[in-house]
Amino acid sequence: MIFKTTEIAGACTVELEKRADDRGFFARGWCSQEFDDHGLPSQIAQMNISFNRKKHTLRGFHYQVAPYQEAKLLRCVRGAVHDVMLDLRPDSPTFMRHIAVELSAENYRMLLVPKGCANAFLTLADETEVTYLVSEFYTPTAERGVRWNDPAFRIEWPAEPVVISEKDCSWPDFVDERRLVAAADEG
């Protein structure tokens, strides 16, 4: 596997190291030892599958709070997605920044989303499927979200969502709690 760092601290894309011949190719898609060797999370608690019927379906932004924060390794196995990751770790040098990566069945690229970051994607084709390995078990009481069009982040999506859940449309505006604490200290 080929690990490429991104602009977000602790996040990376993972490219397959293909061994090709006339049959096609063989590649390792997961190896806990390689992740350990790169200082990346290597514990897997579950694998999730997100199937999306329609192009321009939006899912996210989702994350879990401590002590149930989860790292995710996403790969699009059918179709394509515009995947966006938000850094919501207050102590991170890239706090409140985001990156976008295209994941597709054709490019085989994966995205590692670190604990404390939120993730969302917009499908770019009908019948799109994304699988992701998750480091923690889903805990409903720890689930949080950020609205896909929250003005605090100014994310540029390649298209308007056509399908989006009521929950994902209803997350409140993001509030940087550090700024609230600083304002209270000054007042």
From TrEMBL:
It catalyses: dTDP-4-dehydro-6-deoxy-alpha-D-glucose = dTDP-4-dehydro-beta-L-rhamnose. Its EC number is 5.1.3.13. This is dTDP-4-dehydrorhamnose 3,5-epimerase. Belongs to the dTDP-4-dehydrorhamnose 3,5-epimerase family. Pathway: Carbohydrate biosynthesis; dTDP-L-rhamnose biosynthesis. It comes from Bradyrhizobium quebecense. InterPro entries: RmlC-like, RmlC-like_jellyroll, RmlC_Cupin_sf. Homodimer. Keywords: Isomerase. Catalyzes the epimerization of the C3' and C5'positions of dTDP-6-deoxy-D-xylo-4-hexulose, forming dTDP-6-deoxy-L-lyxo-4-hexulose. GO terms for molecular function: dTDP-4-dehydrorhamnose 3,5-epimerase activity.
